[in-house]
Amino acid sequence: MNEMSAETVLTTTRSVRKRLDLTRPVDLAVVRECLTIALQAPSGSNRQGWQWLVVADADQRAAVGAVYKRACDEYLESSGAAGKLFAADPARSAVQQRVHSSVAALGDTMGQVPVLVIPCLRVPGGLGSGNQAGLWGSVLPAAWSYMLAARTRGLGTAWTTLHLKYESEVAEILGLPADVHQAALIPTAYHTGDGFRPAPRQPLDEVLHVDRW
């Protein structure tokens, strides 16, 4: 595990898509370490309704990857695809084009990534139409904690939900019970290259509101 300050981990945990090492195995003991850390995240009413599916079997990964590829291709053709945003801003558009390219690359390789982690919620009464923020807020912080822990161990991850367009197909592949709902798909692998640095972001004052909008 690399010794990093909290600030370094928080500002350099990037979405890794093109630089995932598809050939280097990931020891599931390391994934377990990261998930153990993730379980320290908060959850509503301390319910801890999260469930974690770790997919390492090659055939299972390939099957999930095929569904993801289909969803990814449809996303890339949509008007909301990363590369089609901010077209009027040349500087920002250039960044979006790189993101678009990396999304496409992950679509091609998802089924080859050594480990796929799928955070889930068990919701016996169904998702309903109530406080969805509170519901998903009980698993998303833990999933992010997993990604941060992976970063300190030299692992790259990416947060994606494109496969949820075909959630029932993935659920069938993985044998998920009807009351278990997927929150994301997190490819996990060692990364190639030297490392990561903070990404360009909007200035805080452009998005900050104090007391009133």
TrEMBL record:
Write the record's keywords in alphabetical order, separated by commas. Oxidoreductase
Top-level taxon of the source organism: Bacteria
Give yes or no: UniProt keyword Oxidoreductase.
yes
List the Pfam families: Nitroreductase
Output the InterPro entries linked to this UniProt entry. Answer: Nitroreductase, Nitroreductase-like
Q: Which GO terms describe its molecular function?
A: oxidoreductase activity
Where does the record place the Nitroreductase domain?
12-181
> What protein family does this chain belong to?
Belongs to the nitroreductase family.
Q: List the protein's name.
A: Nitroreductase
Species name for this entry?
A: Kutzneria buriramensis
Q: What is the lineage of its organism?
A: Bacteria, Bacillati, Actinomycetota, Actinomycetes, Pseudonocardiales
